[in-house]
Amino acid sequence: MRLNWRRPSSAEDRFEAWIGQRHQERVLAGEVTATGPCPDETFLRDLARKSKRISLSDPRVDHAANCPLCMNRLLMFRAQARSHRRQIMLATAVAACLVIAATSIVLTRSGIRRHSPEANLAVVPETVNLWNAGTLRGQQSNPLQSVSLPAARVSVTIILPRFSEPGRYLVAVTRDQAGGDVLAEGTAMSRKSGDREEVSVELDLRHATTGKYFLATTHERDQSSYYYPLQIR
Q1: 10 Å Cβ neighbour count for 165?
Q2: Exposed e or buried b for every residue in 11-23, given b needs 16+ CB within 10 A?
Q3: 68-109 and 59-66 helices cross at what angle (nearest 10)?
Q4: Pairing status of strand 168-174 against strand 211-219
Q5: Cβ contact 173:186 at 8 Å
Q6: For a tag site, which of 22, 32, 52, 102 has the least CB within 10 Å?
Q7: Mind listing the domains of the chain with CATH numbers?
Q8: Which residues pair with 219 in a beta bridge?
Q9: CA 21 to chain centre
Q10: Degrees to nearest 5, angle at CA 88 with 86 and 90
Q11: Number of Cα atoms under 13 Å in the Cβ half of residue 216
Q12: Residue 233: CA count within 13 A, CB half-sphere
């Protein structure tokens, strides 16, 4: 999974990011004077996408970094580029889910089983109530109440946290808070239930061992995933 904001990895990175933010604020406030004419839109788009074709010694780069008009355009183009990447990532995740689902169907129909047919076919209904739950976004650390699911095929209905947006959600069970080692995942459109948003997916947790995991939810328009401590019993 792959839905994380970039974070500085050291004190030096954070300091440089702070300097860059302060410079951006000064430029947008008109406190910096730019030299030369504004470059065309094609150049600004390439600069926003960090194209390797552009040399940092190009005087147009210096102008764009100090011109409030160009800076506003750069920020807009970067936002568009991020939105495009999120759409590609979501489409890839959905395609991966479809491939996994198709493979599961083929294996089931061909009679490949590790347990008895009755145990394999049984789907356990579960409800996870996150209405009042806090969340972990990326590597942020907060104390959260753990949720629980059985090591089985589960049809889980998740009551999403208050103020959650409607739309399509990717739900996954992972071994870590960074979205690594995905055990099971599924996508579905949320539905309204009173003043709450709910999403229902089927997760195959039959091969999971008892222990601690994370339940992750990702909205189709959000780059980051939200993680909830999960106990598989």
Answers
A1: 12
A2: eeeeeeeeeeeee
A3: 100
A4: antiparallel
A5: no
A6: 52
A7: 10-112 (no CATH), 116-232 (2.60.40)
A8: 169
A9: 24
A10: 70
A11: 30
A12: 7
d(CA 15, CA 34): 24
Q: What is the token pair recorded at 87?
A: 């759409």
Question: Backbone phi, then psi, for 36, in 5-degree steps?
Answer: 85, 170
CA neighbours closer than 13 Å in the CB half-sphere of residue 38: 12
Strands 136-137 and 226-232: antiparallel
Please list the pLDDT of the chain residue by residue as tens digits (233 residues).
444 445 545 666 676 667 667 777 777 777 777 777 888 888 888 777 776 777 777 888 788 778 888 888 888 888 887 787 788 888 888 888 888 888 878 777 766 445 555 545 689 999 999 988 755 444 443 445 568 999 999 999 999 998 888 999 999 999 988 777 899 999 999 999 889 999 999 999 999 999 999 999 999 887 788 889 999 98
What does the DSSP assignment read for the chain? ---------SHHHHHHHHHHHHHHHHHHTT-S---SPPPPHHHHHHHHTT-TTS-TTSHHHHHHHH-HHHHHHHHHHHHHHHHHHHHHHHHHHHHHHHHHHHHHHHHHHTT--SS-HHHHH-EEEEEEE-TT---EETT-----PPEEE-SSEEEEEEEPPTTPPPSEEEEEEESSTTS-SEEEEEEEE-EEETTEEEEEEEEE-TTPPSEEEEEEEEETT-SS-EEEEEEE-
